[in-house]
Amino acid sequence: MMLVQSRGMIGAEAWVRDGSWQEKGLYPLQSRVWGKTAGEPALNPRFLELNNVLLQPHHASGTFETRKADMKTIVIHEARDLRIEDRDASDPGPGEVQIKIAAGGICGSDLHYFNHGGFGPVRLKEPMILGHEVAGHVTALGDGVSGLSIGQLVAVSPSRPCGNCRYCNEGRHNQCLNMRFYGSAMPFPHIQGAFRQVLVADAAQCAPADGLTPGEAAMAEPLSVCLHATRQAGTMMGKSVLVTGCGPIGILCILAARRAGADLIVATDLSPFTLKMAEAAGADLTLNMAENPADLEQFTADKGTFDVLFECSGAAPALAAGISAMRPGGTIVQLGLGGDMSLPMMAITAKELALKGSFRFHEEFFTAVSLMQKGLIDVKPFITQTFALNDAVAAFEIAGDRSQTVKAQIAFA
């Protein structure tokens, strides 16, 4: 075994505190945090990596002993700097499950990190493993785990609330003050994501996905987002619904709204390809706002038509056009994250519209898996591309191309 000499644990701590770990080509693995106090970097001198080799201190000799990492991960360093890097896999502890990831979907937030290094005030401050839409097969069970079996396909919920804060106690787990949502740069140190060949997760995160393909199971996460939005919208039976923006979330909102009893569903977008996909999802009418910007005017007579607006584009013009077509007393559910925008407040006030945000999900995840297992929601047509792990950069390049993509996935197996 090769040994890399150090100055022992005190020396390793000094490397972190004076920043010389960077000069030595060392990078911290964020599996644990050590020695952090206010104003100090949350770097861990006990777990450092040199040239894709995991370094751990050998306590008796004051040296670092090395061993090859045994899984590949997809790591974003800064905008447009995506790398496939080796990391060390771990065994499950009590109540945990080890999973060999089979499929992972690229989300809009992943694309924000890839293209822009973040979104709004959320910026990358350190390398981060991406990904939170994943499914795979159980390879090991920790002590006390029941209800799951080796080889079983599971969808893994990325929602990991603390269960103890004021919002968890109110049942608003998606608003948890200490949320550890996979692949998120909101806190620092960042929460490392699930785009890795081997993942250890709490058994409570794992929804049995028997009868589904790994790709379908990985769609449970975005479908859960839309089920939560449908809950935010309230009673859907017999309602007229407008969906603005037909990316993955818009498409799945169409499926969720129809399953909840919506009558008329109209979808708008700028891309002929995504509008064709919206038709396949069951939209009664699709409108290309790039070709005919005034198409929604037909729904503005008598103060408007739609009871519910799912705004999935994050674009101010789409929201403004949608509000003009809303009937008095309607509900706007904002899902798209495109930054702050100006709102037509006079129309919102005069029509007495309710404006609600919709952020992530929690308990809807297992329902999403169940609906797919029962054949009540079919997501397969909207998985438009699947890339090998080594082609991850190409996958990210194409994932946001709405002329040919709804949902691009990565096969990790």
UniProtKB/TrEMBL annotation:
SUPFAM superfamilies: GroES-like, NAD(P)-binding Rossmann-fold domains
Annotated Gene3D superfamilies: Medium-chain alcohol dehydrogenases, catalytic domain, NAD(P)-binding Rossmann-like Domain
Residue ranges occupied by any Enoyl reductase (ER) domain in the UniProt entry: 79-406
One Pfam family, short name: ADH_N
Cofactor: Zn(2+)
Superkingdom to which the source organism belongs: Eukaryota
Protein name, entry field: Enoyl reductase (ER) domain-containing protein
Naturally occurring in which organism (per UniProt): Effrenium voratum
